[in-house]
Design goal:
four-stranded antiparallel β-sheet, nine-stranded mixed β-sheet, binds zinc ion, alpha/beta
Length: 412
Amino acid sequence: MDMSQEQWARVTAQFATLKERSPFYAKKFADFDLTEIKTMEDFRKLPFTDKGDLRDAYPLGIAAVPPEKIVRIHSSSGTTGTPVIIPYTQKDVDDWATMFARCYEYAGITPEDRVQITPGYGLWTAGIGFQVGCEKLGAMAIPMGPGNTDKQLQMMQDLGSTVLCATSSYALLLAEEIAKRGIGDKVKLRKGVIGSERWGDKMRARIANELGVELYDIYGLTEIYGPGIGINCQADSAMHIWSDFVFVEIVDPKTGEPVPDGEEGEIVLTTLQKEGAPLIRFRTHDLSRFVQGDCPCGHNEHPRIDIITGRTDDMVKVKGVNMFPAQFEEILAFVDGASSEYQIMIDHLNGRDILTFFFETEATGEEKEKVQKQLAAVFKAKLGMTPEAKGVAIGELPRSEKKTKRIFDNRY
Ligand code: ZN
């Protein structure tokens, strides 16, 4: 998908002074005259920016403004080594709130709503983004942060929370807890806004049914403001991405070339207004595709992408077959008696790879064996190899307040 005229105008304005403002890009684009970038072809010649570049710029090397203009920093949860620090100016903070408030509006949330925010606060961007957007919209923020389920459920009942913001794992945990305590009729939730980790249809249906809510997927990442750069609307499940703030490309993760519109690839983002840390062609490692055609909601100025299928680094290769979490979820959806929670263990034993597929099920005894057999058969039909299928009781696999790790590759 090419840039709109409005997006070109923003990029051109940005490029006119980018190298003067940013030593990082002066170096990165040393071989390019940015004022000569006039076509999509020119633009696509610019090298990608990757998380590794940002890590190398630690702590504040990515800044494109003088230090006194920086009003806040956030940091992405680096699982390995040096973290990434992203500086924000006052305009960046305001823009983020504007985008987030727009997300709430697209989800049909109004100033009448009471929004219980369970993502974490602090260096991580999530919680505060949900909060500033909520305040900008004029709704009541209930800034719980993660954990303390007793208190979460108490506040939810006492304050009459109508919106729950959470990761899908934590939303599921709360839904199960509400069912267990039999307090469903005291809970007034009507919408759930869920951070965009990969989650399957079965899990979605369970959360929606048990909480009695409409669910919305919100997209974003710490490097690009945080959550809130897009959300699905009330008409459809695909996410609108705010075209006045972000330009989206979808590329082949191996070649870096754009894939045909509608095909799956890696999301690459360019910020159009960001001051503190502008990002040009940033590789997200998230996989999705453009959803073509008009959205029934009419907001066609904001292009749509599908719910995230997975991450390029979530892919595992077993016996020569590439596998993604989305495929494991599809298999679960096919098997009656299998619930939404699963865990994949990959081991190398006696010279061969073994994939064990743990899944939660209410079935026991012979019934459970039947479900296990069925799951193994569906897996074989879809992916061409037979896993060890192992059913475990509901609630036995871990749920976390952040993102639940489901795939464990023990081969290396
Ligand atoms: Zn729409």
